[in-house]
Design goal:
Layout lengths: L1 E4 L6 H14 L4 E5 L4 E5 L5 H10 L5 E3 L1 H10 L14
Antiparallel strand pairs: 1-3, 1-4, 2-3
Helix pairs in contact: 1-2
Length: 91
């Protein structure tokens, strides 16, 4: 899975635009968008991370590829099992 931080993604319309852009380069990709966390998780079928990043950029957004294992560590260290932070935690 490839994860991008998209700091200028602020709403559902942004998420929809990014999803369409990714689907244009990889129609079979599995895409999960976390607007509140400003993250886009993509399980590509055909495209590589560079092509996915370029698609997001071409749609007008800045995408920075992330190492998810390092990003989720602080949430787990604080006792949160979901890694999603306060906005998604149900504990």
């Amino acid at each position: 899975m490839t994860t991008f931080r998209v700091t200028d993604m602020t709403c559902g319309h942004c998420a929809s635009t990014i999803t369409e852009a990714v689907r244009a380069v990889d129609a079979l990709a599995r895409i999960e968008v976390d607007v509140a966390g400003r993250l886009v998780h993509i399980e590509p079928a055909d495209a590589d991370a560079q092509a996915l990043s370029k698609a997001i950029s071409s749609a007008g957004y800045s995408a920075v590829e992330m190492d998810v294992s390092r990003e989720s560590t602080p949430a787990r260290a604080m006792g949160c099992c979901c890694g999603g932070g306060a906005s998604t935690c149900r504990s």
